[in-house]
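retry 2 of 3: previous attempt timed out while embedding protoporphyrin IX containing FE. Reduced batch size to 1 and resubmitted. Inputs unchanged:
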Amino acid sequence: MTDQDRKPPRPSRRGFFVTAGSLVAAGGVGFGAQAASAPVAKPPSKPAIEPFWGVRQGGILTPTQNNTYFAAFDLTTTKRDDVVKLLRLWTEAAARLTRGQPAAAFGVDQSVPAGDSGEDIGLSPARLTITFGFGPGLFVKDGKDRYGLADQRPEALVDLPRFNGDQLVPARTGGDLSIQACADDPQVAFHAVRQLSAMAYDIAEMRWVQAGFSAQPAGEKTPRNLLGFKDGTRQPDKIDDMVWVGPEGPAWLRGGSYLVVRRIRISLEHWDRMNVDFQEQTIGRHKYSGAPLGKKHEFDAVDLDKTDAEGMPVMPENAHVRLSHSSSNDGAQIYRRGYSYNDGVAFTAERWPPWKQGMLYDAGLLFVAYQRDPRTGFIKIFGNSSKFDMLNQFATHVGSGLFACPPGVQQGGYIGQTLFEA
Ligand code: HEM
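retry 2 succeeded.
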């Protein structure tokens, strides 16, 4: 066997598309009969490659992909240089992966592990984005300044307070570093995190992960969550002002953002037993159209002051939309980019209350929100709605994280360079 024979058949997923595209083009210039019968990949409706290098990180305002794989890591090294080494490796690999290339060259020597596990060979890059974040533990952990970064910790990178009803599981909470891979193909998203975590050996280890999905109905702007409601309709009016850290933040983080991620388990069995009227009162929107209560169309303005013939508010006082709305929270707005998750079913002997029919889904919302400052964003809004929201009887927060996502990086640099070389 020659070295050439040992090479995986298609090391570049990008190459796959170029080939498919050339076949179509070739059909018009002479290979007619052959090209028409050959299986040709359907051209993707959106460009398959999202840019990696740039002023901002991808995956924040990038139109939401269908799948995500989120991972939080604990740093195990004591050396600052190791952290920089890892971030350099991750940056180079992420740039390659988002282009549809393997994380590292496969190599030709089959007696050693390959540079990439290869499960995405032949797949489209699927608009893969990889977004990196820094948790509080990168700066200070258990009172220790492990990497000489304590005085660079942004004031807004707080330890999230305990909210009403929180049932956070330590094994699904926190993390010193985060990676969120988003792609239109679940295998591509998983593959990306798998390669990056393999590079972290001896420097960082995975703390928790969560896969998620979000399907875009044809011809509609907004996906539906597992409640069956459109989710993501109302987003900040001035999105750039609400998402990107400005001069109020430390210089290294300007142009970055803060990520709040929550694993919110929803009692689907309970929810499915509620009549639709009640579901709509709980959310504050009509289920099928997505319109705010009392309105006709999805994007009609929410009116919190409207009353019915008896003078009662059309939008209930404890509806999710009322309590989360900017005018109930001193103008606070966050950019939500969530995904549903389903991690299977737990079988139980309990049959009371009646919705416990011997099984419970472990399913819900991987809530993902980006904001300029979590203190005036997520903490402000959820501090309010965690106390009063009708939705809380169906939702339990079991996982959580807050991460400062640095700005984007130009070719040749590495993610977080502004922090380590400040
Ligand atoms: C199980 C958990 C949750 C579910 C199923 C859920 C679902 C929804 C739905 C269906 C809407 C209305 C459509 C829309 O405008 O997108 C909405 C709006 C919203 N949600 Fe949630 N949500 C959940 C948790 C949260 C949490 C924890 C927050 C924390 C801050 C939050 C913040 C918001 C905001 C800010 C809006 C927009 C309100 C407006 O301005 O009209 N949601 N959510």
